[in-house]
């Protein structure tokens, strides 16, 4: 039987359903973005809670992705090493003919020993530690934030603001926490500013992230630049949060405003990280009574000098005492008799 003439050959229900689904996804994404924007500006606490929940939900996938990337990197390195071994076999045989086995064993032991020493120094020499973990990936990052995700959260005692360290030095601070994971703000983030000092001279300065790797360092005192290439910058402990004397960066270049420094820690190559308690500097001691007395006498002299009434009363009394020496002398026999 011939098909009806009114049939529309361009009609496709599947194409219409696909177009409708794309509209629904687009509108839903816009709504979610508007809700997150409103929470970020009006309700920061709720926004951090939502981000923490999202971090908890995505941390298993981040861990899985990190494991897959590590496996691929190791496979690539093994394959590359296997291929390269064929071309270098002759040279290695001549060089390590008598000591190859001992040299390989010594190198392995040296590498393991260095890693264990760094881990031991990180854990044992930091009495204010909270927990030790790993960097497992990056969160839902925007273009202007430099953050990372660690695999320890509030269940391990981690809270917002705590400093994050590696064996080499400072990594950043905790920005938001979930139950089993947390988001940290790296040193290179543009909003991250911390007080530092030059380890060589102790001169204080401020280091701020640039977002692209290095740090901008500015001295606190105007004048001649106190920086030199190769200077090590460490935390000063001023203002709290970061404990003092933690390595931060090395000065790599000088400019008119100060210097440019490269962080000592590369988060992409960190094996272990540690979260510490927020550092609280000691309060200055209260002045003693002996220190207060000179200031009190000085304040009294200043008050008498600035008060004309006090001077007018004091001068007549002094004059009366000088004009009546008899009264003062006559009072002494009476006092002697009474004694």
From TrEMBL:
Compositional bias annotation for Low complexity: 324-339
Residue ranges annotated for the Rod shape-determining protein MreC beta-barrel core domain, each copy included: 143-275
Pfam families (alphabetical): MreC (PF04085)
Residues that span the membrane, as ranges: 20-43
Alphabetic keyword roster: Cell shape, Membrane, Transmembrane, Transmembrane helix
InterPro entries per UniProt: Cell/Rod_1, Cell/Rod_MreC_2, MreC, MreC_beta-barrel_core
Keyword field contains Transmembrane helix: yes
Residue span of region Disordered: 283-339
Single Gene Ontology BP annotation: regulation of cell shape
CC annotations in GO: plasma membrane
Family: Belongs to the MreC family.
NCBIfam families: mreC, PRK13922.12-3
Protein name per its UniProtKB record: Cell shape-determining protein MreC
Species, as recorded: Zymomonas mobilis subsp. mobilis (strain ATCC 31821 / ZM4 / CP4)
Phylogenetic classification of the source organism: Bacteria, Pseudomonadati, Pseudomonadota, Alphaproteobacteria, Sphingomonadales
